[in-house]
């Protein structure tokens, strides 16, 4: 089962509101943004994070699990993340004003993924948006999808 299906299943089972945004920090070099409305995908976009992959160290944790660590000062990478949050804000405004003439808006942001800085990403998103911001952690995934962990996904 891939993680997009987890977002979709959780949306189908739990989220039945007019508009919700789900932001996925899928990896160290990309972000997937998906806006759902009444169980349907309305907007989907992938954003590349222009990080130098040679500055990342990979450790094999098990057959199905890898761990990534940034080997340089994290300040540069955090600035890239902050620019992605700004871009997500632009997408939310585009969705609201350009696609829906101000009549529909995103009401929730969900942050999830296997990025090693996911907690800091969640805090950055929470500080920059006035709507509800949720963090789908490994614990939440394990509670709802028993044998899957964020770090096990093959991205």
Describe the structure.
With 155 residues, the protein is an alpha/beta fold. The protein contains 4 helices and 7 strands, in the order H-E-E-E-E-E-H-E-H-E-H. The chain has helices at 3-14, 75-99, 118-128, 138-144; strands at 20-27, 30-37, 40-48, 56-62, 65-70, 108-113, 132-135. It has a 5-stranded mixed β-sheet, sandwiched between helices. A two-stranded antiparallel ribbon has the order 4-5. A hairpin with a 2-residue loop joins strand 4 and strand 5. Helix 2 crosses helix 3 (118-128). The longest helix has 25 residues, at 75-99. The two termini are 12 Å apart.
Question: Which keywords apply here?
Answer:
155 residues, two-stranded antiparallel ribbon, single chain, alpha/beta, 5-stranded mixed beta sheet, 4 helices, globular
Shape: globular
Strand segment tally: 7
β-strand percent reads: 25-35%
Strand and helix order? HEEEEEHEHEH
* Widest β-sheet, arrangement of strands: 3-2-1-6-7
| Low-pLDDT residue spans | 1-16
Separation, N- and C-terminal Cα atoms = 12 Å
- Category by helix and strand content: alpha/beta
Helix content: 25-40%
- C-alpha-based Rg, rounded: 16 Å
Assembly type: single chain
- Major sheet, described briefly? 5 strands, mixed
List the total number of helices. Answer: 4
User: pLDDT average, as an integer?
Assistant: 78
How are the secondary structure elements laid out?
Blueprint lengths: L2 H12 L5 E8 L2 E8 L2 E9 L7 E7 L2 E6 L4 H25 L8 E6 L4 H11 L3 E4 L2 H7 L11
Parallel strand pairs: 1-6, 6-7
Antiparallel strand pairs: 1-2, 2-3, 4-5
